[in-house]
Specification:
The complex is a heterodimer of chains A (about 290) and B (about 250).
Chain A: H1 2-30, H2 37-54, H3 59-82, H4 90-112, E1 128-130, E2 133-135, H5 137-159, H6 161-171, H7 173-178, H8 183-209, H9 218-229, H10 234-254, H11 257-260, H12 262-274
Antiparallel strand pairs in A: 1-2
Helix pairs in contact in A: 1-5, 1-8, 1-9, 1-10, 2-3, 2-4, 2-8, 2-9, 3-8, 5-6, 5-8, 9-10, 10-12
Chain B: E1 7-16, E2 19-29, E3 34-39, H1 45-52, E4 60-65, E5 68-69, H2 75-81, E6 83-86, H3 98-105, H4 112-125, H5 142-154, E7 160-164, H6 172-187, E8 191-196, H7 199-205, E9 208-213, E10 216-222, H8 231-236
Parallel strand pairs in B: 3-8, 3-9, 6-7, 7-8
Antiparallel strand pairs in B: 1-2, 1-4, 4-5, 9-10
Helix pairs in contact in B: 3-5
The chains are: A mainly alpha (about 290), B alpha/beta (about 250).
Chain lengths: ~290, ~250
């Protein structure tokens, strides 16, 4: 029982982690927390549902098309809603992202209605026995997919020219410009990648949560996971999100109904009280 | 001096909001020369470099590099033209490794084998960086960071290397080492444009000196005649070492 709770907690946590990484990629590129991240996930999931219907349920066709469309939407949002605000106070920009989340929710409501739709699972939901635990391929698939995506991100940011350039730009924009790195291109990449991460997360989690216009609230959990891990740190976002997912699941399994939703909040409060910078957070250090 | 100019600047003005940092600067950078730009804090030296590298858009005037107009083009286009700017206070990327920093210097280049060769050249030129290649740049000492910043600037294979106060805050032996390398670079045919507070050091290596004062060229002269005199220091630099605050 405990083992199963932990595994399904990790699966949900892995989904939070993908959304959390999207938060951080945009934050590192722009210093802005994109509060539309959860809604980008919701729209991506709806898109995938429509594409699945259109292509007779083929994930092989629907998923790549969804990722492409999600990237286009993310890039468009950056280009037309946020880029004109470069140089504006951060607070203004953050408010704009909240506005964007509302726009995405209403537009999704107009296109897909505010009803709740079941979403087909990309991996089977038939339980099987692994090392004495009853798990579903879906749960394992969620963890594995998130793992593969994270590995790809790691390789991108550490071993490619543009990935390294994005890290450089997040450290010092002026110096990055002097290297000939186009900051506009960095922003485009950040928003495109974040939107794709959100869409993948939605596709993975939707069989459990269904698809609906309020699905973006998962973004708040992912944001909490990212803060728990130390906002701005990639490994921190993953660790914090996994910890949050597992805690939530254990609370749901073992605690009376009234306490279930409180435990994750207590966890965040506790960690941040003891370590205000989060689990992996670094003190801001600067050396001249 | 030499026939054609690498960089010519004519009547350049620039500012930040209401503050006018450059008020009609004209200068000429011939190839294979070291040009020193001296001046007190706030004289407009840094702004001049920032205009050339495209960080600041001038409000008036012309800049031509190898016949190409620079005034309206983006930094990502200016770097591959052959201008590299080593910014004030070094500004290496602290949580990138030394090797990654150097590779970022070559960001606009696509010739992988040439980049590998140049990395080797940088490690030969600054041997102290070689054992630190995998170390994060933020863990280097100030002098090592300055060498890394220069190496990073050279990785773009520039024709003109602009340095903003490479000696700032460094111990005298390290300053000597950095100026020795700048001399070697100039001998190899690179053109250097050097901003310095350390007027004596700059005069020792430079061929030609421009002194900026309140955003204008107050003096343009061959460096030889000014060496060993304290005239530049006394007349134009406001008595040398003052607290650095808000350099524009």
């Amino acid at each position: 029982m405990l083992g199963q709770q932990i595994i399904s907690g990790l699966a949900v946590g892995a989904v939070y982690a993908l959304v959390a990484l999207g938060f951080i990629i945009i934050y590192k590129a722009t210093d802005v927390v994109n509060f539309a991240q959860g809604e980008m996930m919701m729209v991506g999931t709806f898109l995938c549902l429509s594409l699945l219907r259109f292509f007779g349920g083929s994930f092989l066709i629907a998923v790549p098309l969804t990722l492409f469309a999600a990237a286009v939407i993310g890039i468009t949002m950056e280009r037309f809603a946020l880029r004109p605000l470069i140089g504006a106070p951060l607070f203004t920009i953050v408010i704009i992202t909240i506005g964007l989340s509302m726009v995405l929710r209403s537009v999704a409501g107009v296109i897909w209605t505010h009803d709740i739709f079941p979403f087909p699972a990309i991996f089977s939901e038939r339980p099987m026995h692994v090392f004495g635990l009853v798990v579903t391929p879906l749960t394992l698939g969620m963890v594995a997919t998130a793992g593969v995506v994270m590995a790809l991100l790691y390789v991108f940011f550490n071993h490619t020219r543009w990935g390294t350039a994005m890290r450089a730009a997040s450290e010092n924009q002026t110096a990055a410009i002097l290297m000939g790195i186009s900051l506009r291109r960095v922003l485009t990449l950040a928003w495109g990648i974040s939107a794709m991460l959100a869409a993948i997360a939605g596709i993975l989690v939707a069989p459990m949560t269904n698809v609906h216009t309020n699905m973006g609230l998962i973004g708040i959990k992912a944001f909490a996971g990212a803060i728990l891990g130390g906002f701005g740190s990639f490994p921190g976002a993953v660790a914090g999100s996994l910890l949050l997912g597992v805690t939530e699941n254990l609370a749901a399994g073992y605690l009376p109904a009234g306490l279930r939703d409180v435990l994750p909040a207590l966890l965040i409060l506790g960690v941040l009280t003891l370590r205000p910078t989060g689990i992996f957070g670094q003190r801001v250090r600067r050396r001249l | 001096m030499t026939p054609a100019s690498l960089l010519t600047i004519h009547d350049l003005s620039a500012g930040y909001g209401a503050i006018r940092a450059l008020a009609g600067v004209s200068l000429d950078v011939p190839p294979n020369r070291i040009i020193a730009v001296l001046g007190a804090n706030g004289a407009g030296k840094t702004t001049l470099l920032r205009c050339i590298s495209g960080l600041v858009r001038p409000t008036a005037g012309r800049m031509q590099f190898l016949g190409q107009d620079l005034a309206r083009i983006a930094p990502e286009v200016i770097v591959p033209l052959g201008i590299s700017h080593v910014p004030e206070r070094r500004q290496v990327f602290p949580s990138l490794t030394v090797l990654e920093n150097l590779k970022m210097g070559a960001f606009t280049r696509r010739d992988a084998s040439g980049i590998t060769e140049d990395l080797e050249r940088m490690f030969a030129m600054f041997p102290i960086l070689r054992p630190r290649a995998r170390q994060l740049a933020g863990t280097l000492s100030g002098g090592e960071q300055q060498m890394l910043a220069i190496g990073r600037g050279l990785m773009a294979r520039p024709q003109l290397l602009m340095l903003d106060e490479p000696s700032l805050g460094l111990a005298p032996q390290i300053v000597d080492e950095i100026f020795r390398v700048l001399g070697v670079l100039a001998d190899s045919g690179l053109t250097l444009m050097l901003i310095e507070q350390n007027a004596a050091k700059a005069l020792a290596v430079a061929h030609h000196v421009y002194v900026l004062q309140n955003g204008r060229v107050a003096l343009s002269a061959p460096a030889e005649g000014l060496r060993g005199t304290t005239r530049v220091q006394a007349v134009y630099l406001g008595g040398g070492r003052r607290a650095r605050a808000g350099e524009a």
